[in-house]
Amino acid sequence: MTLEKLQSEIQDLSEVEINTIHKLVQALKRTRVSPLAYIEEMMNFQFMRYDEKEDVYIHRMCVTDELKNRYKILHGGITATFIDTAMGATAVQALGEETSAVTIDLQVHFLSPGKEGWLYAYTKFVKKGKTIITMESKVKDEREKLIATASSTFFRLK
């Protein structure tokens, strides 16, 4: 694709569509300097903090129109991606940067729709084995409404 072809493609887009294209380009550019993948940048994925009292790692993402399905709620696959990303980040944050782990399985229970604003994943360890890591996560919206729960198993790479 040439710049000229791209310009002709976007000529008849609405202002809202142009803003979406801008967000996509900005997320793509951020991946040049960020350790996050493109989809993580699209979600505005962020580590918030470790809550020592609750023993949970807290991450968040922003629900935007680009991440919603045809029913105007957060796409379930994006919710699952957010949870998987929060769990993977938790493994690295808790076990060290030298830790590499991949998802073996992920079970998500969708309880309420994510509609707008920030969603928060509260992730804790169930087991930290030498090769197998098991975690649980709860996703809540800004009003503390439970959006989803999940459990996952990760495999530590050598």
From TrEMBL:
<protein>
    <recommendedName>
        <fullName>Medium/long-chain acyl-CoA thioesterase YigI</fullName>
        <ecNumber>3.1.2.20</ecNumber>
    </recommendedName>
</protein>
<dbReference type="InterPro" id="IPR029069">
    <property type="entry name" value="HotDog_dom_sf"/>
</dbReference>
<dbReference type="Pfam" id="PF03061">
    <property type="entry name" value="4HBT"/>
</dbReference>
<dbReference type="InterPro" id="IPR003736">
    <property type="entry name" value="PAAI_dom"/>
</dbReference>
<dbReference type="InterPro" id="IPR006683">
    <property type="entry name" value="Thioestr_dom"/>
</dbReference>
<feature type="domain" description="Thioesterase">
    <location>
        <begin position="72"/>
        <end position="147"/>
    </location>
</feature>
<keyword id="KW-0378">Hydrolase</keyword>
<dbReference type="GO" id="GO:0047617">
    <property type="term" value="F:fatty acyl-CoA hydrolase activity"/>
</dbReference>
<comment type="similarity">
    <text>Belongs to the YigI thioesterase family.</text>
</comment>
